[in-house]
């Protein structure tokens, strides 16, 4: 018996647009659907537009087995189809994005950067510090006699030679003292000669028993007294001559004169008033400090001979070469630093007392060291790295191990080989695989270097 029209309409509503008339499927009351019938119903559902929405379960009393089985099959097929559709769409989106990125990477122009070649050479191992130059000797010139300053033979700031005449104290009073001393010496000499003759005569008389021993001893005492007086007058004359010589003040050494503190025609007090300060700058010394932890290395390498020291003033690319002349006998407990001094010939007077300089103390030489410009080394979360460019001008990140810094160069112990190309400027625009093109000209100076020079200059102004 066939399903009546009301039951057919109810089934049509529950199945969406599926009906027996449209699908050609007929159901008999009370009959279980065979496997072929189930497949036919599923086919009818899919062809009838079931993708629009899931089908609710059938509530028919006449075909419960068929309703449950159809609902389970249709729900399973719908879920599987939805997942497959979403997976296909996601795969298509990823493929499109990847293709877009590759096409964009190909279309993107090369990034202009500065590059440098990795080099290998023997490299000195330096300890670097900031120091300041100091005069090798400093002399405050004072008068050794009191008198009027009557002459000056140089200008403030002039270079001076040893024994060059500087000042003259009025010599007239001291010349008079010399003449007075000479007169006293002549007088005491005559008196001594007279006393000596008297003693010789009395000695002869004493031998003849003509005078007593007491008289002879008196003449002997008188002779010795005159002798001592002559020696005293001789010493006074020498002192007068020395004081006369002190009136003519000369430079004790080669050096640079400074400010003149007393004007002409003023009275100068002996050993009190400073006339001028002379600083010896050829040679000159440079004072600097390094961490005390390097003391053992300094003692180790210093035992082989004098250690080389470089000093480079600001604005001068050529360093002055000297030698280490002093290692202090104590490490400062407050700072942990040890004071050192280097001595420099300074033939062209490029080092000047008080100027701040960059100091490098040469400890030893590292053989076949690998070097790159210091600006090529970057800091990342996992350590230091560089950007390396291959022959196709594509860049890649390469981890490296920094041994030390040598001026504007970095000495590497791992990560690079001689001849490779590294990026020294423009790293912020790079990503792995990016194409680069060499940019002409030197890379700009780092802000840290500019700030360091400003700090050194400000120290010089404050001093």
Helix content: 25-40%
Radius of gyration over all CA atoms, rounded: 54 Å
Strand count, sense and barrel status of the largest sheet are:
6 strands, mixed
How many distinct helices? 8
Count the strands?
Answer: 20
Given the C-alpha coordinates, what overall shape results?
Answer: elongated
What is the first-to-last residue Cα distance?
119 Å
Order of helices and strands: HHHHEEEEEHHEEEEHEEEEEEEEEEEH
Average residue-wise pLDDT? 81
Q: Can you tell me the CATH superfamily of the largest domain?
A: Helix hairpin bin
> Could you please say which CATH topology of the largest domain applies here?
Helix Hairpins
Domain module count: 4
Organism: Desulfomonile tiedjei
Main location: membrane
Protein name: Efflux RND transporter periplasmic adaptor subunit
GO cellular component, one term: efflux pump complex
Question: How would you characterize this protein structure?
Answer:
With 463 residues, the protein is of the alpha+beta class. The protein folds into 4 domains: 5-88, no CATH class; 111-120 and 368-462, conserved putative lor/sdh protein from methanococcus maripaludis s2 fold; 125-133 and 278-366, Efflux pump adaptor protein, beta barrel domain (Elongation Factor Tu (Ef-tu), domain 3, Beta Barrel); 147-268, Helix hairpin bin (Helix Hairpins, Orthogonal Bundle). The chain is 36% helix and 33% strand. Strands 1, 14, 15, 16, 19 and 20 form a 6-stranded mixed sheet that branches. The chain is elongated, with a radius of gyration of 54 Å. The chain starts with a helix and ends with a helix. Residues 431-463 are annotated as: Disordered. It is found in: Cell membrane. Residues 283-364 form the Multidrug resistance protein MdtA-like beta-barrel domain. Residues 137-277 form the Multidrug resistance protein MdtA-like barrel-sandwich hybrid domain.
């Amino acid at each position: 018996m066939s399903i009546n029209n009301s039951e057919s309409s109810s089934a049509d509503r529950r199945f969406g647009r599926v009906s027996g008339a449209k699908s050609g499927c007929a159901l008999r009351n009370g009959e279980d659907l065979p496997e072929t019938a189930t497949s036919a119903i599923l086919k009818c559902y899919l062809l009838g537009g079931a993708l629009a929405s899931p089908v609710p379960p059938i509530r028919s009393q006449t075909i419960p087995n068929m309703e449950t089985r159809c609902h389970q099959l249709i729900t399973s097929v719908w879920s599987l189809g939805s997942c497959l559709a979403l997976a296909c769409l996601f795969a298509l989106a990823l493929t499109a994005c990847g293709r877009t990125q590759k096409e964009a990477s190909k279309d993107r122009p090369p990034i202009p950067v500065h590059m440098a070649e990795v080099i290998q050479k023997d490299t000195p191992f330096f300890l670097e510090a900031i120091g300041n130059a100091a005069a090798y000797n400093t002399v405050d010139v004072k008068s050794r006699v009191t008198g009027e300053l009557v002459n000056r033979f140089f200008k403030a700031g002039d270079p001076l030679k040893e024994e060059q005449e500087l000042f003259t104290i009025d010599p007239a009073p001291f010349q008079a003292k010399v003449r007075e001393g000479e007169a006293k010496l002549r007088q005491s000499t005559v008196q001594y000669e007279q006393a000596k003759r008297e003693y010789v005569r009395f000695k002869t008389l004493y031998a003849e028993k003509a005078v007593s021993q007491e008289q002879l001893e008196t003449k002997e005492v008188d002779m010795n007294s005159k002798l001592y007086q002559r020696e005293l007058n001789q010493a006074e004359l020498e002192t007068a001559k020395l004081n006369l010589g002190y009136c003519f003040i000369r430079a004790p050494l080669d050096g640079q004169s400074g400010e003149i503190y007393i004007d002409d025609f003023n009275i100068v007090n002996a050993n009190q008033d400073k006339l001028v300060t002379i600083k010896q700058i050829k040679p000159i010394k440079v004072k600097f400090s390094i961490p005390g932890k390097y003391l053992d290395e300094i003692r180790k390498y210093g035992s082989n001979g004098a250690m080389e020291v470089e000093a480079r003033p600001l604005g001068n690319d050529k360093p002055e070469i000297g030698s280490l002349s002093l290692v202090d006998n104590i490490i400062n407990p407050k700072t942990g630093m040890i004071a050192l001094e280097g001595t420099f010939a300074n033939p062209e007077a490029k080092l000047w007392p008080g100027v701040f300089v960059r100091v490098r103390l040469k400890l030893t030489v590292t053989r076949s060291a690998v070097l790159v410009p210091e600006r090529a080394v970057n800091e990342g979360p996992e350590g230091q790295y560089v950007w390396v460019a291959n022959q196709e001008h594509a860049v890649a990140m390469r981890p490296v191990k920094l041994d030390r810094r040598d001026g504007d160069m970095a000495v590497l112990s791992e990560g690079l080989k001689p001849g490779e190309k590294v990026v020294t400027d423009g790293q912020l625009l790079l990503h792995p695989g990016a194409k680069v093109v060499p940019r002409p000209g030197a890379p700009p100076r780092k802000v840290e270097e500019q700030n360091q020079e400003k700090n050194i200059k400000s120290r010089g102004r404050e001093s």
